[in-house]
Specification:
85 residues; 2 helices
Length: 85
Amino acid sequence: MPYALYCDDAKISKAYPTEASVWKHAQESGLVVDVDTGDDSPRPRRILDNGYQIRACSAEPGENPEHNEAEAHAERDYQLSRNAA
């Protein structure tokens, strides 16, 4: 089942094949924040910024979640190569 990023009940991302793919997309978009857990954990807990959620969804007609993930990966690689130059 595909997953997408939502804000206030509105789907704001393409559908991706896994929840982990959406987390990565959200992190790259600056929508993931670190919060102190208040316990003895050595690292903060990562959560989505206020109002954002990752939910299971249906792909739009003609949409391919695997293609969306590959496209996002290619775009990240392109941005990284531009920044390295």
